[in-house]
Specification:
Blueprint (H helix, E strand, L loop, with lengths): L15 E4 L4 H7 L6 E6 L4 H16 L5 E6 L4 H6 L7 E6 L2 E7 L4 H9 L8 H9 L4 H14 L4 H13 L3 H9 L8 H14 L6 H10 L4 H13 L3 H14 L3 H16 L3 H15 L1
Parallel strand pairs: 1-3, 2-3
Antiparallel strand pairs: 2-4, 4-5
Helix pairs in contact: 5-6, 6-7, 7-8, 7-9, 8-9, 10-11, 11-12, 12-13, 12-14, 13-14
């Protein structure tokens, strides 16, 4: 039984620091000899600063240490702000090798900030993406632990939430998967999110019927399409989509009228529910052959 999941709050950010008069030389100039430092010059009263700084913080994590974001509150360091010759804020400077390599003013959108960074930086895989990649080929229990660790690093990472929900659905931890999916913001809910919710709904509604008795009916009369549909539903609910696809493909092959179309529609619906890409690929291939 999987315990109810609630991702912890993010801890201190290793790629984002606050700087001021006392540590500017060490934290920005000297540190830029080892790694590029992006200096974000802002002030509490500055509205555009409040929209730009979260973008810079997000990118500092997304680039996984390719640069360090140093945030300078110009209200608390007026002499330093004057020395930097700031004319307006927000103003962003990229320091490399102890000097300014490039800069921009204003609250640019994320895409433009990425373009600015990519002129000077080679993005590195983030720790979250590395964990997701490793989890993809790991044993199930190890993979879940890796995905949990990734969510501890970045609780709002949508694809990690979906990866973990996918695995929990596969082993029947439906309530925990539902809670995980419910935590995805509405704006981030794309096709994969909807497909996982559909799998949960499907798994919670076991169709009626005795698979042994239904298999006997099919063996006695291969054109007992009602029995084939009922048996296929039980097989799909149990996770044996290959067998379920075979039942309905047999209907497509044997019937040329109403049952054939019903089987086609059901197959297309289950292709979107099946978590096994190989089974889906095989099912689609045979459906195309049988329909032509």
């Amino acid at each position: 039984m999987t315990p109810s999941f609630s991702p912890p709050a993010a801890g201190p950010d290793p790629f984002v620091i606050d700087v001021g008069d006392a540590d500017f030389e060490a934290a920005v100039l000297e540190r830029s000899l080892q790694v590029p430092v992006l200096l974000d010059c802002w002030a509490p009263w500055c509205g555009p600063c409040r929209s730009l700084t979260p973008v810079l913080e997000k990118l500092a994590n997304a680039y996984g240490g390719a640069f360090v974001l140093a945030k300078l509150n110009t209200e608390e360091a007026p002499e330093l702000a004057a020395a930097l010759r700031l004319r307006s804020i927000p103003h962003v400077m990229l320091f490399k090798e102890g000097r300014v390599a490039d800069q921009f003013s204003g609250a640019l959108p994320e895409g433009q900030v990425r373009a600015f960074l990519d002129k000077h930086l080679q993005p590195q895989a983030s720790p979250v993406e590395e964990l997701r990649e490793q989890a993809a080929t790991a044993e199930p229990e190890v993979a879940e632990a890796m995905l949990m660790q990734a969510l501890e690093i970045e609780p709002s990472h949508v694809e990690t939430r979906l990866d973990l929900a996918d695995r929990w659905i596969a082993r029947g931890a439906l309530d925990d998967a539902q809670a995980l999916l419910d935590g995805v913001p509405d704006a981030a809910r794309q096709d994969r999110h909807a497909a996982l919710l559909a799998r949960i709904d499907f798994a919670r509604n076991r169709p009626p019927g005795d698979p042994v008795a239904l298999a006997a009916r099919v063996a006695a009369n291969p054109k007992d399409f009602e029995a084939r549909f009922a048996l296929a539903a039980l097989q799909a609910h149990a996770g044996d989509f290959d067998a379920a696809f075979d039942q309905l493909l047999d209907v497509v092959l044997r019937d040329k009228a109403e049952w054939r179309e019903k089987a086609r529609v059901q197959l297309v619906e289950w292709f979107n529910l099946c978590p096994d890409p190989a089974a889906v690929s095989r099912g689609r291939r045979y459906l195309g052959m049988y329909l032509n």
